[in-house]
Amino acid sequence: MTHPTGWGLIGASNVAREWIIDAIRAQPGSEVRAVLSSSAERGAAFARDNDIAWHTTSLDDLLSRPDIDAVYVSTNNRLHFEQTIAAARAGKHVLCEKPLALSVEDANEMVRVCRACDVVLGTNHHLRNAATHIAIHGMIEDGRVGRLIGGRVFHANYLAAALQGWRVNDQGGGVILDSTIHDIDTLRFLFDQDPISVFAMTQSGRLAQDGIEDGIMAVLRFPDDMLVQIHGGYTVPYAPGGVEIMGERGVIIGRDCMSQRPIGTVSVRDGDGEREIPLKHHNLYHRALELFTDAIHGGGLPAATGEDGVASLAIALALRESARTGREIGVDLP
């Protein structure tokens, strides 16, 4: 069913250019009608290069347009809160990049205001849309490897030079809020539950400075005494990304599945050996935008809701607190 939807981009970002514009245009009737950038020059170039008819440096001007129904927020993490609140109060639905905000209090307020303004708030946690993770979730749900014992996520890579700006020189950045937060959301999706405590140690100084983390080793304790390890980093070239889920009857192995691209494999290893599970890959962002578009037209929920964004942020900040204090930190989700 075609749902005409006009979009405004708040932020002329790399992820908007590489993934979101295409995903919006893949939805029948959806159009990108405007882009906001703090730089008029950058905004003009972005609009020209991506065939967007209108650009501005004024948030008020973008939000006052009646032909814009929804916005995608991908600015510096510090700006998400005020831009999302303004969009909601202007009656625009919001798909916001992670982290929703820099504090749980602000993220909760974003959810509250969007609900009060009767607009949909989604968090752009793309990995839960991957065919690999959907398959793994289904196997866990079906008890394929029995009662779960533990797991690990390996998601260390090398941050591209074009992205080595605020991510490595601003307290609103760092690997935890930029990357590990995706791992957290993926685990929440896979297990359908939240960790009860976390412990972490971080690295800094290879790409990031002044204590901003560019590497992390973490352990999350889930209910039923299940432990999951995360290794994340900005400084590791050529490393594969994946997950392993260990149960009493076997192990589920996802390889090359921590990617924005529709790639990766899923296997099960047990007493009969290792067998690959057939998958039908799809574009992660196309699925995310399809679910978000359906949600704003009354059909279901976004792939990751605002509440999911609050939870992933709260757990990520608990990891930061653990690394800072050297203590295991309990997770108390709202």
Automatic annotation (TrEMBL):
Residue ranges occupied by any Gfo/Idh/MocA-like oxidoreductase N-terminal domain in the UniProt entry: 7-125
Pfam families registered for this protein in UniProt = GFO_IDH_MocA (PF01408), GFO_IDH_MocA_C3 (PF22725)
Q: What is the superkingdom listed in this entry's lineage? A: Bacteria
Q: What GO MF annotations does this protein's record show?
A: nucleotide binding
Where does the GFO/IDH/MocA-like oxidoreductase domain lie? 135-252
The protein here is known as Gfo/Idh/MocA family oxidoreductase
